[in-house]
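Our preliminary data section would be incomplete without showing what the modeling component actually yields. Below, a chain of 74 amino acids is followed by its predicted structure, encoded as tokens that our downstream tools consume directly.
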Amino acid sequence: MRDAGVTTAAAIAERNDKKTNLEKNKEVLLQYIRDNVIGSSSDTLIQTVYGEKPLVYADYTASGRSLRFIETYI
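Predicted structure:
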């Protein structure tokens, strides 16, 4: 019978593995979303008085930028 107050090394290792996998999955998901923002390619340049500068959006909600996988679904 296990004592409720005792945590085994195996249980700690399993919990750490789950946390690591969750963090990896989050990064994969966030990268997928970043890759699917329509018009967000890193090579999009705009002409300014200071020369060509990369197009940067600070507020995705206000910009109305869509996600490619949502547009495909619709």
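The chain has a mean pLDDT of 75. Residues 9-73 form one domain. Preliminary results of this kind motivate Aim 1 of the renewal.
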